Amino acid sequence: MTYDSDRIEALLDEGVRDKVYPGAVWAVGDAAGIRAQGTTGALDPDEPDVPMRADTVFDAASLTKILAVWSSIGALWEDGALDLDQPLGSFWPEVTGHPLGSVTALQLLTHTAGVPLRAQLKNLYGTDRNDVRRGVLHEQLHRTPGEAVEYTDRAALILGYLAEHFSGQPLDQLAAVRTWHPLGMNSTRFGPLPNEIAARCAPTELDQDTDTHLKGAAHDFSARLLGGVCGIAGVFTVLDDLVTFLRYMLNASTSRTSAGFGTEWTACSLTVQTGEFQPARGLFWHPAPDTTAADDVWIHYGFTGTGMWISPTKGRWAVLLTNKLYYTRDRQPLTEVRNAFRQLAFG
Which of 53, 158, 189, 230 has an alpha carbon 20 to 30 Å from 65's alpha carbon atom? Predict the structure, then answer.
């Protein structure tokens, strides 16, 4: 397997020059390890002499949904504790008798549950974490479950609560015990980060309250509202930990210790589970844009500018970490870079 590192570097260097992002960290490889990797740009445009590094800590944003929620739900499923097709209200007292009780975990994982499309937690439920949890779990549905694929952050928030219900542990502890620690992902954790780790963190959006860019605190407002830990966002991670995670997904024998989820969960998740509905979805993962089923390339992105790809058929993975949110919320410039990067990584 060969990669055109020169073209990848040229693509990502151009993104820095065009101010798509201040800097980027990337790698591509297979189950055996990294085959090519690099960095470009600066950690912070205010300090142009400080380069982006391979060990830069990134606000993973929605990669949290994979690293914490998807992995934990997979562990519960492989334990035999969770039936994905069983209505939540039949075994979860918090939602019994409420609209969410008719929804299944499978529908949440495929974004077909019909739950509200926007979080709006503070506006709807206030700032008390128990009130937020109660409000989310008792909310009216947006539409009939199983009717359409509509991406919503709430799916991961609810599944995070479900994982906590089953395990009796907070989500951050559950993810650490069942996934991160067994795989040796020692730099992956929920924020807010201690100062010494935050110093290595790529800054994201300008915080209007402090007039400084967020660094070591989650950009996602829901995560900050809930103290840093929730299913939507809040995890911080580094390139090497994501490489470890993706290698394990391709071949579980790459790790001396098994995570709670394994090959069966991965195979189930990287298969279209939404029938003829569009856009097609697996379990939280979805096919990369402009690819075919034969290509078998799956992705998950984070709003801050993070992303990871995996293809069991090709036996490859790729990671691209940026802090594009430092400059803008406009998604299109980074979308173009991501698609070009994926083409170079997977052919």
Answer: 53
Cα 323 to its chain centre, rounded Å, is 15
- Of the candidates 177, 147, 333, 165, the one whose C-alpha atom is nearest the C-alpha of residue 259 is 177
Residue 197 exposed, middle or buried by CB count within 10 Å (0-12, 13-18, 19+): middle
Residues 6+ apart with CB under 8 A from 347: 314
How crowded is the C-beta side of 155, counted as CA atoms within 13 Å? Answer: 27
| DSSP characters over 67-112 | IIIIHHHHHHHHHT---TTSBGGGT-TTTTTSGGGG-BHHHHHTT-
Contact 290, 336 (CB under 8 A): no
Per the CB < 8 A criterion, the answer to whether 117 and 127 are in contact is no
Tell me how far the alpha carbon of residue 295 is from its chain's centroid. Answer: 22
Tens-place pLDDT, residues 172-198: 999 999 999 999 999 999 999 999 999
At 131 the three-state DSSP class reads helix
Quote the CA–CA distance of 339 and 312 in Å, as a whole number.
19
**What does R_g of the chain's alpha carbons equal in angstroms?**
19
Is the model's pTM score more than 0.85?
A: yes
**107-166 pLDDT tens trace:** 999 999 999 998 899 999 999 999 999 999 999 999 999 999 999 999 999 999 999 999
CA-wise closest residue to 224 among 177, 190, 194: 190
What would the mean pLDDT of 50-70 be, rounded to a whole number? 98
Containing H/E element for 335?
A: helix 332-346
pLDDT of residue 1: 57
The answer to whether residues 287 and 113 touch, using CB atoms and an 8 Å cutoff, is no
Q: Contact 213/68 with Cβ under 8 angstroms?
A: no
